[in-house]
Specification:
Number of strands: 0
Helix content: over 70%
Distance between the termini: 51 Å
Order of helices and strands: HHH
Shape: elongated
Radius of gyration: 16 Å
Oligomer: single chain
Mean pLDDT: 86
Length: 87
């Protein structure tokens, strides 16, 4: 493995462990987002074929959609908390 791949793998493993032990919902959402992007980068760096490029592209697109969902969820939770939980 090249150094860049090792760094991405280290980040992926570290953040995955943090995701498992995090108790705060916000932290879990952010760690999950980082896992998605790290996985997309790792796929792109290691699979050097057309199918690898397609897999990395799909993973990156869905990671982007995931990050939008995370931002939307955080905003909605904040709105609910401001309203005092009434919904």
């Amino acid at each position: 493995m090249r150094p860049a791949e090792l760094v991405m793998l280290a980040v992926l493993l570290w953040v995955s462990l943090r995701l498992l032990v995090a108790r705060d919902v916000y932290a879990q959402l952010i760690y999950l987002n980082v896992v998605g992007f790290a996985l997309a980068g790792l796929i792109a760096a290691t699979w050097r074929t057309d199918m690898g490029l397609l897999a990395a592209l799909c993973s990156f697109i869905f990671s982007t959609l995931e990050s939008n969902a995370v931002a939307y969820t955080i905003r909605k939770v904040e709105e609910i908390r401001r309203e005092g939980g009434r919904r």
